[in-house]
Amino acid sequence: MRNTSKDVKKRRRVLIMIALVTIMFGLAWAPIHCMHFAMKILKDFPFHNQNLFAFKCLAHTLTYLNSMLNPFMYSIMGNNFRKQAFAQKKRLKSYYTQRSKSQSLTNTSISQTMRKTKLNSINTNIDPIVLKSLIKDRNGTSFN
Asked: What's the whole-number average pLDDT of the chain?
């Protein structure tokens, strides 16, 4: 079986990812383990020190942070992550652009319908969402 350059690159990426995750794990968990080790070894360990309390909080926060960042590390190091992220960004941008255009058209249609039915002159409280669902566009489909 031959190793192609593509296979070598994939293996190198996997090794880098494993190394980064291992380094992050070591850096995040080292302070809490050092503190627990010192508590066991030292007889005159200052258990009720304010600086130690701050250190404990920081050490525990690092351990939680490590668990939180692991999925992001795996996804960033994934093969198609950047491609998929940019594609998703484009989809979201086009969705919100289309939605804002649709929203302005819907608001225009609502105001036109209100003028036509003379709802402006009548003092009624009609929910705009209910009114939107009642209004149909030219093709007969609702705006929802």
From this structure: 75
Question: Would you place residue 123 in the very low, low, confident or very high pLDDT band (cuts 50, 70, 90)?
Answer: very low
Pair 76, 113 in one domain: no
Same structural domain for residues 72 and 17?
yes
* Exposed/middle/buried for residue 118 (C-beta within 10 Å: 0-12, 13-18, 19+): exposed
Pick from 99, 101, 111, 100: nearest CA to 135? 111
- Domain holding 101, by residue range, is 91-134
On whether the CB atoms of residues 84 and 46 are closer than 8 A, the answer is no
Residues 50 and 72 in one domain: yes
Q: Are 81 and 73 in contact (CB under 8 A)?
A: no
- Please indicate, yes or no, whether residues 70 and 130 belong to a single structural domain of this protein: no
Phi, psi of 33 (to 5 degrees): -70, -40
Cα distance between residue 85 and residue 72, in whole Å: 13
Q: Which candidate, 130, 144, 142, 137, places its Cα nearest to that of 112?
A: 137
Query: What is the tally of structural domains in the chain?
Result: 2
